[in-house]
Design goal:
By secondary structure, the chain is α/β, with parallel strands linked by helices. It has helices spanning about 10-20, 65-75, 100-110, 115-130, 145-150, 155-165, 170-175, 180-195, 205-215, 225-235, 285-295, 375-395, 410-415, 455-470, and strands spanning about 1-5, 25-30, 40-45, 50, 55-60, 80, 85-90, 95, 220, 240, 250, 255-260, 265-270, 300-310, 320-325, 335-340, 355-365, 400-405, 445. Strands 1, 2, 10, 11, 12, 13 and 19 form a seven-stranded mixed β-sheet that branches. α1 (about 10-20) links the parallel β1 (about 1-5) and β2 (about 25-30). The chain starts with a strand and ends with a helix.
């Protein structure tokens, strides 16, 4: 019998499994695919490797959550610091998001001049720096009393940031600048969306500030693709089961019984890395089903349309770009396309003289449910985004080695998950409404981007840190 069975090898699942293993526990990690990482994995198509989703790796600054957890596990990923973290392309303007505040502001004032720029971005910088000095809070959902006790730990943070927590980000930005043109507003909106997974009208300004400030922290490129991080992170886990889809979980008096199509396993504790709004399907126990079913309303159906490419080129590209257009793309929720290029020196991800490209844009899962229009929609959006890439980066058709696209339906087929990006940190989905990493069911826990605290490496790792405290590791 295992001490802990972790179901799903995404950021949260792989990290908590590796952490528990490092503490001497008997751990099993189950992944239904042949590769690790879920929607942050690396996969092969026609002999070429691609990162499944966006490839930014952040939170690895000294004393920040990702580095703290990985150091405790004893794992050091192979990384290249990337600066600028992202380059914004909008209406012929190129705005690199340099880590150095003054270098960035110099470019910003040239492209988006405003008398309030210095004051606004100094506020963004200060909120980000101050936030990372708060360490002693945690969040529990085990019972109403446990939740109340945990919320008390947030009082210093609430007091410090209360005026930014209580106001809508869109309203704050409009009021702060007094007058801001649509182009500059979209510049801010697009960057906030890729981090917070929600528009400024749906989140508070505190969340928006942290989203805009992530480029002032260190950001990295993962050599060999994001999958290399997961392979290294889980290398010491003695019971790692790939191609093992957990189809159901029985809740017994003293332990859990996990079933695949071929065999069953027993564990004292279970940690799920599945989405909180789909986890009810794993259980027959009515209490557990009810707990998860109440969070089904959190499924906002937000997802991604992906364009993958391999090109031959002698040009030099930055690691990450965001291309902002003046209106949303058809069949999407956004007018901004996020594009990641492999590093020129990364021979593991792409051959010499080639680049592996992952481009993503927000969409709605419901846009892709009609079988009569699905293929035509997919082809049309693929061609539209391809043209944008060719035009923006000067890529020619004969330089394309491989090109294909993926929709929410594709993700549902391969990783059994069509909603991507986790729970948006909206005004309606904030503490204490957010599901925690513990549950009212004894010895049943949860990690990932659909529970506390948020999506992306820093957000999910905050959940791993929270679970570490709840498990008293």
């Amino acid at each position: 019998m295992f001490d802990y069975a972790v179901v799903g090898s995404g950021i949260g699942g792989s990290s908590i499994a590796a952490l528990l293993q490092s503490k001497g526990y008997n751990v099993a990690l189950f992944e239904k695919e042949p590769y690790l990482g879920g929607c942050s994995s690396t996969f092969m198509h026609k002999g070429h490797l691609y990162n499944t989703g966006a490839t930014t790796f952040s939170g690895y600054d000294e004393h920040h959550v990702v580095k703290t957890i990985l150091d405790e596990i004893g794992f050091k990923p192979d990384l290249i610091e990337t600066d600028p973290s992202i380059v914004i392309l909008q209406n012929g303007k190129t705005t690199p998001r340099y880590r150095d505040f003054h270098t960035f502001l110099k470019v910003l004032n040239k492209n988006y001049p405003h008398t309030k720029n210095i004051a606004f971005w100094e506020l963004i910088y200060e909120i980000n720096q101050t936030f990372h000095t708060y360490q002693n809070y945690y969040y529990s959902n085990r019972s109403i009393f446990a939740k109340l006790r945990s919320l008390i730990t947030y009082l210093p943070l609430f007091v410090r940031f209360k005026k930014y927590l209580a106001i809508n980000a869109h309203t704050f930005i409009r009021d702060f600048f007094t007058h801001i043109d649509d182009e500059y507003l979209q510049f801010l909106e697009s960057q906030i969306l890729i981090v917070a997974q929600a528009s400024t009208k749906k989140i508070n300004f505190f969340t928006a500030a942290l989203a805009l400030a992530y480029t002032f922290n260190k950001n990295y490129y993962a050599m060999g693709g994001m999958g290399a991080i997961f392979d290294g992170l889980t290398q010491n886990i003695s019971h790692l089961y790939k191609n093992s889809d957990i189809t159901s979980i029985e809740y017994l008096d003293s332990h859990f019984k996990l079933h695949t199509k071929k065999r069953s396993y027993q564990s004292k504790n279970v940690i799920l890395n599945s989405t909180v709004y789909e986890s009810a399907n794993l259980f027959t126990n009515s209490k557990i089903k009810h707990y998860y079913q109440k969070y089904e309303k959190l499924n906002n159906h937000q997802s991604s349309f992906m364009l993958y490419m391999t090109i031959k080129s002698s040009k030099t590209f930055h690691h990450h770009y965001q291309i902002i257009k003046n209106k949303p793309f058809l069949y999407t929720l956004s007018q901004a396309l996020f594009v990641s290029f492999s590093d020129q020196s990364d021979r593991l991800l792409a051959k010499k003289g080639e680049y592996s490209i992952t481009a993503s844009i927000h969409t709605d899962t419901r846009f892709w449910e009609n079988p009569n229009t699905y293929k035509a929609q997919k082809q049309k959006l693929q061609q539209t985004l391809l043209k944008v890439l060719l035009d923006e980066f000067g890529i020619t058709q004969d330089e394309i080695v491989d090109c294909f696209a993926a929709t929410p339906k594709s993700f549902k087929h391969y990783i059994k998950r069509s909603q991507l990006g986790g729970n948006a940190m909206s005004m309606k989905n904030f503490l204490p409404r957010l599901p925690s990493n513990d549950t009212p069911i004894k010895n049943l826990y949860h990690v990932g981007d659909s529970v506390y605290a948020a999506q992306g490496w820093p957000g999910v790792m905050m959940g791993v840190k929270n679970l570490k405290k709840l498990l008293r590791l």
